[in-house]
Specification:
Distance between the termini: 42 Å
Strand content: over 45%
Largest sheet: 22 strands, antiparallel, barrel
CATH superfamily: TonB-dependent receptor, beta-barrel domain
CATH class: Mainly Beta
Shape: globular
CATH architecture: Beta Barrel
Structural class: mainly beta
CATH topology: Maltoporin, Chain A
Radius of gyration: 24 Å
Helix content: under 10%
Amino acid sequence: MKKLLPPGIFCFVLAIAAEQLVAQNDTLKASDLKTVFILEKKPSFTTTSRNITAITNTEMKEYGAQTLSDALASLPGVSQLTTGAISKPVIRGVSGNRIQINVAGLRLEDQQWEDEHGLGLSDVGVERVELIKGPAALLFGSDAMGGVINIIEEDNQTNGVLRQNLNLKMFSNTLGAGVDYGIKKGDAHNAFSIRAGYDSHGDYVDGKGKQIPNTLFSLANLKLSYTHNKGNWTSENRLLTSFNRFGFIADTSDLRKANERTRWTRAYTGANHSVLFGVLSSKNTLQISEKTKLTATAGAQINHRQEIERSKRVDLDLLLLTANFNVNIERQLPNRWSWTSGFASMAQFNKNLGSRIIVPDASQLEAGLYTYLKKQQLLGPTIGNFECGLRLNSRQVDTRLTKKFNPVGSAIPPFNKNYPSFNYALGQSFLLRNFTIKANVETGFRGANLAELSANGLHEGTPNWYIGNPNMKVEQALNSELALGWQKGWFSLHAVAYYNKYFNYIYLSPTNENNFGFPVFRFLQNNAAFFGYELDASLAKSDRLSINIDYSHIHSQLDNGNALPYTPANRLQLSGRYYLPLKSDQWKTFVSAGAQIVEAQKRVSTYETPTPAYWLLQAGCGIQYHNMRILLSGRNLLNRAYNDHLSRFKQYGILDMGRNVALSFNWQF
């Protein structure tokens, strides 16, 4: 196996992530812990027309999540497309390059064009994740079509006190364990933090007690940060690195290897992926005046992916280098208006280093200009917020002559294409006593990825030959959404209805062709639509009891009425928590229980397998004393044998994970 390139090859240029989320101006709500624990901040998102939610690190651990994608899948309207432990988030039916993910203020760039290429991020050092449902291209740019996942790293401010934190966790199903340690100190002028963590998991076991071979994985993370404040200038600098490995099933012959492995093995003797990821960012904010602020962030990323498939040597070896440059200016205007304008750009280079080539060597350049206006309205007892904006964007894709892939006379020769795009947003929200109303219309866009434009080879893990189309048009989304909310005392109700229309939607379709004896699948374009609704009811008194019920319904189709593949099944989730009454405020103890009821998904695309209905039971408890916390959570407690509709293992007849009990310990000192 080739030696992975060291992080030192970073070729950094000035960059910024234009990550001006409207909700950043919202008030922050601390979690309801009353001990010496450092409180997590959770925005309320009441001053924007967008549908935004958040999940904190504590909530992820209470859920018993193994990865970040796993944790996000607990939110209404969010699922995960899985290939064993490999997963990527699905928001309202779309995933991959249709979801923008931001890390350390930069748009995450990886090889998301392959179904087996998961997100691969852990919760180590993450304070919370903010999630926007629906297009958000105006402020976030390309790929923000189905939603945006904004990963917020932990703060390093400690009022001059040195603070340390140790997390331990164990998982019964995969015989997995994880550990991470962090240290930080910060005052009004300088702050730093260091955090390192490692997670290791073996093969998982399904609801029938069968070990699923080669589904082991490991995640290693190192994060450094330094913040400097001087006068009106603040500089926040972060270096994040990770090295992840995932086993995967390359073909059905791998299924016979279960008896050859022990559950404790951590040896990657079968097909596996390894990914070295690194990002360096420097976000700089200058308060020019009381009403004007300039923000700039410098950053670059490396993503080095290696895959061993059916041999002992590296087959696929891809190096992706990305640099961004964005800058924006915010100004407060008279009559409660605010104005934000900015410039965003990206330069990216993809290089093949291995023998197996799916996509060619290529470079991509992207640039965008945007302007955004917001007005706070005071109409008697009603508080309103009006938002609107425009964005112009262009992406240039230049593929190179690549050995063994596109020689002279090949089906897809090298090409140079430009993909311009125009986007807009219009939204209004009202808050009147107990009622909230939000409505918005917003667009999203993306240029086709390298696989959709130029793939010409066998698809990993299948006997199918994929062929791209360099004449793809820009994929555009137009989303309209209406949200209603009502709250009275402990009780609240929320309802959201949305219709997301995709123009030039890219999808894979079988053909009658064969290439070297393999069936050919081609990438095509057609209009499509995703529409549905989400309902939520909750009864909550934060220091004693909380009960929540939510339901997500989604429908997808092409213009010809055919269903799109991997559309999540409709889902009902029930959860409740009770805090035990204790005489001492030094202790905090709770018990929780819940159920996930998933409907059958019978409306499927060509060659897709339907899935029956199922339901899962979960429960947990937690105890907190002074600076220590212990959480115990169990999922699929009845050990149900089931298939999630978004599991790619369905094609092999493989069931999802059985009972899994997670134990976590946190010590702050």
